[in-house]
Predict the structure.
Amino acid sequence: MNPKENQPKQKLRDNLFQGIFSVPENFTQLYYASSGKHLQPEDLTPLQLESDSLTRSLASDVAFITKDNRLIILIEHQSSVNPNMPARFLLYYAEYIRIWLSHHELELSSNQKIHLPEPEFYIAYNGETPYQASLLSLNLGEQLAVQIKLVDINYPNIVDKSPSNQLAGYAFFIQTYYDGIRQGLDRRQAFLAAQQMSRARGYLSDIIDKEEFMLAYAPIVDREKEAREADAAMIKSYFLHEQVMKMLNKGLTLEVISDLIEMSVDDLEYMLRVRG
């Protein structure tokens, strides 16, 4: 499990997606759901940028190349569809090709023709808003066109919901997590509920009970910090109320006070009603 470095743990969708599907055995399930084509895990090599690369932002979420150098497969996870994704994929591919050429000590200035790996681009979409299009395209004149297949991986759309399907496990975990958030659970409570329900269904059984799973993905909720912030907000509200009352007693209108303390008149009226 290797979620992107320096990413906050609340980006659960992205981090868990990368952690699960950067494993070749799991990637083949995602690839089959996306393309309808089978690949064997032993035929794949993960593509990675150097951890200190200045171009790390040009890395897709999951990237593999076939060992025969026939295909480069790039899959980006999205919870909202960005219309600029075709251009981003073009940059991803160019960066991976640059690294591939360097690794094989190949020069484009050579007189010998170089057969570049063919790209396949996919978006694994699990946003809440239904997205009807199945392709995103970018046409740069007649000579260059980029197409991305968009695949909806929300749990209801997963055909194979068996426990052995890691894509189903991922989709169920994420759906259950956000159901918990909508029901008022905090992030850690929602995570633990999704973990328990996934365990009951047999999903993600190879990782879900491992300590590193919790360390890598479980949101950390600092109860003491939350309490301190709540106390600070209450104290601030008290002193603000006192300040506003003094201004009103001096004859200032709410409109004038609003300009002075940069607080809307509606919010001022609400605070005065609540605090009496």
